[in-house]
Amino acid sequence: MVAAGQVSTGIYNEEGAVSSSFLAHVANAIAAGDTETLLRDVGHLHQSEIGDLIEALDPEQRRELVNLMGETFDFTALTEVDDSIRREIIEALPNAQIAKALQLLDSDDAVYILEDLAPEVQDEILALLPFTERVRLRRSLNYPEETAGRRMQTEFVAVPPFWTVGQTIDYMRESRDLPDSFSQIFVVDPTFRLVGAVDLDRILRTQRAVKIEEIMRESPHAIPATMDQEEAAQIFEQYDLLSAAVVDENHRLVGVLTIDDVVDVITQEAEEDLMRLGGVGDEELSDSVLATSRSRVPWLMINLVTAFFAASIISLFDDTIQAVVALAVLMPIVAGMGGNAGSQTMTVTVRALATGNLGLHNAARVIRREIGVGLLNGLIFATLIGTVAGLWFDSVTIGGIIASAMVVNMFTAALAGILIPMLLDRLGIDPAVASAVFLTTITDVVGFFAFLGLATWWYGLL
């Protein structure tokens, strides 16, 4: 337990979560209205650490922490918390306080905070901002969600090509309206069309009299503002970029996308794909019981419908099951193995589609590979399960039937695991969301039909 006025040596425990001692210390300070302690022990933390602390606190404590810290609270920390928590805190604050805080943030962080609010609330807050900042934020908010225009920073350094290096350095030293940190300077023509870019290290190594146009390089990786943020992240990954210009439809410079924003995008997209594969959508740990249940019920309902469809296949073979009780015992093995094998293929395929590593250029090769893997694994597990089943029920016939069904279902699972996501992607449907339901249905139906159908055919001949 941490004594009054003392803080543990770090805010995290060995598991990487906010330590209970530090959490109790902050909670006690909030309960006592001890602003001095909060400013001393929380005010110096990094924005991500403050975000973790906010998520660990109770809802009432979160709002009170922001109120007690007042103008010293770093609103950038709100970009590090769940969407529902951010909305909860923002909605509890007066618009004037929010507007004042937004003026201290980079434009990309300000947009991140504003975009989840209702349009009328956005308008009220924007109306309290200076004209220039209001126009910049409104322009970013007008771009579609999850595009480069939403994630870009509108603070950047741009100079004409006829300036000298000396003029550029003097401009950077004297201007007060520059971003806090940047790694390159963009070159634009009189209409603000992007011409090229110059890295800061090149500026520092060049004589003052040299013109910018002599040392600039083209910007081949300029990103359209309407490009999906995931595609923009793939460009960063492919070309090892630290930052990239963002341009409008007329190739005019409107912002810059930086690596820190792209890392957030990559993390966010990976989490979304993982959650959607599980049929839980955009669920967050901070969501209420009702909200969580509401997000999961639709996919569970679809699964229920497909389960009844699979059960109807089983009902076609009632007589066979009654005659050979062993079939009822072994049925789940065939369907379960097919489902697991298909999920492996589907996961790899969905991720490859999301990262752009799978397309028409290599689809045939990847499909052949997965078919080969399905057949090989099918033969391996057919041999294993067929042997076990034959010994278990003292029947070579039972072992042969389940082995044959296993090969058929593992092959089908591999084929479905790659073709279903590819087909959904071609139809414009998110394969991460819809693939699992179709895959489960196919492996269950094919597994049951192959196993029970082979058994009915075989025993029907005796």
TrEMBL record:
Question: In the record, which residues are listed under signal peptide?
Answer: none
Query: Sorted alphabetically, which keywords does the UniProt record give?
Result: CBS domain, Cell membrane, Magnesium, Membrane, Metal-binding, Transmembrane, Transmembrane helix, Transport
Q: Does the keyword Signal apply?
A: no
Superkingdom, natural source = Bacteria
Location in or out of the cell: Cell membrane; Membrane
How would you describe this protein's topology in the membrane?
Multi-pass membrane protein
Keyword Electron transport applies:
no
List where the protein spans the membrane: 297-317, 323-341, 371-392, 398-424, 436-459
Ranges where the CBS domain occurs: 152-214, 216-272
Chief location of this protein within or outside the cell: membrane
Question: So what does this one do?
Answer: Acts as a magnesium transporter.
How it assembles, according to the record, is: Homodimer.
> What family is it from?
Belongs to the SLC41A transporter family.
Put simply, this protein is called Magnesium transporter MgtE
Give the source species: Chelativorans composti
